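Hi C.,

You asked whether I'd gotten around to modeling the 281-residue construct. I have! Everything is below, sequence then structure, no commentary in between.
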Amino acid sequence: MISITVFAQITYRPIPLKNTTYYYKSEGMRPATCHSYHSYEKDTLINGRQYAKMNSFGSATSISVFCDGANSFNSSTTNRYIRNDSAQKKVYLYNIPNDTLLYDFNLTVGDTLKTAYANQGTLILMSIDSILIGSHWHRRHNYAPAGLPLALNPIIEGIGGERGFFGPLKHFEHNGILKCYSENEMIKYPQSNFGQSGNCNWATNENIYSKTAIKYSFNNNSLNIQHFNGSLSLYSTNGELVFETKVNSAFLKNFDYLPAAIYILKLQSKGEQQVDKILVH
């Protein structure tokens, strides 16, 4: 059964392609956990069209789990290119040599959707409603796989998927949840977090490798680590080593001198390894 919720006229909101970050988390019954992170880095011109370069980073605690950006026990970093077609209410993912449809907000209830996002099969638009985020209303398209009408996968206009940005849409096993979405370093979604200061950078989220996570803070471009003995390395997203040192108990350093960008922080001690991402701004 399909339905539509009636709501007031809402202006179309394209996906913001600057100064936004996402953090998704999914858990399954194996047990296993997947973390995936996305942020836009810069504008890129491809075939005369303007795209935003998105950096996607995923990490899984089991080799059997798919993450938005990784399908390995360790981690993977992937660059993708996204563009809005606001006139058609569509969002595209660049796949060499062509665009692939990612989101389509011009559909009506009952229409089917086959995109790079819905890579597990055809989705049916079951209903359309709206959600108030801050002071703005956003349309929400609720899709379900054919034959599974209750397995809803919402996609919010102006934000993206609630169940994952690129990963397969599933109803239960390893179902992704959008844990944090921010614009201009202000958390905007989930609604319970609206108005809180801060952003979705990786230093403020859960650490993803060690069961006994190494505790540290990263604020105002300063990295502060206490009660840690081991090696510290900082890499660019291209894999270039930009800083390394040995830590004996404590470490404090400001990285204002680095260009504003996302960096990969690697901490290693006694065979344990922890990898996170931090945002220098």
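If it helps when you're writing up: Residues 70-74, 205-212 have pLDDT under 50 and may be disordered.

Thanks,
B.
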